[in-house]
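Extended Data, panel c. Modelled sequence:
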Amino acid sequence: MTDPIELNRRNWDERAPLHAASSDYEVDKFIADPAHLSEVVRFDLPRLGDIRGLRTVHLQCHIGTDTLSLARLGAEVSGLDFSSQSLAQARALAERCGAGIDYVESDVYAADQVLAPATFDLVYTGIGALIWLPHIEPWARTVASLLKPGGRLFLREGHPMLLAVNEDHQEQLVIEYPYFEREASTVWDSGQTYVQTDRLLEQTVTHEWNHGLGEIITALLQHGLQITALEEHDSIPWEALPGQMSKDATGEWSLDKDRWRLPLSYTLQAVKRG
């Protein structure tokens, strides 16, 4: 098997139950507390605003903790992911929490073929998603196709500048990986995932692609979206550079030394022109 998307899918299928069982995703807290929200969604609450009643789709939703959080804020949410095992965990969580969320299995590029186009008020993409897409232009096309005129994209993502840094150098910031989108992927082979677990993965090979901030913005503009907000952050929800970061009370990680040196994530919003 050499198809990179299929290799990634198999890896995420194997990760999904490990993530759902991990305290990092706080599944037990979601079940115990009907008001609990994911750390990722809590971070962006001031930017999300009032989303009550908005028809929303969460692209690349994984096990659905952010999706459930959007539903708890009053949105009418659908979740989409290419991993059947991720969606199985998402559906189980929604059922245990009494949330009416429609989950759909699909490649994100085909989202407008399995969901009604031009019917969504809000397209949401959470952090850690875009690196799994080989090309950003068809993603932007899909976002534009799903949104109603006047509908909004809300994206928080790891900053492409951070993703170009090699985390193995713990004494300094070293740029070794692509910043701009390239046809060739960056290939990883690891039995680890990013949550605490005693189990090693069997599906170890994954492929990632970085996308420059300008490339993302240009693709959205080309497909009729107007950028309405762009905020770069000096924090991110995981320990992206081990040995150089500390975690704060909100669950965000930041550089220990000179936080101003590197953007770690960003929040982008855009509206479909109509």
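The mean pLDDT is 94. This feature is highlighted in the accompanying rendering.
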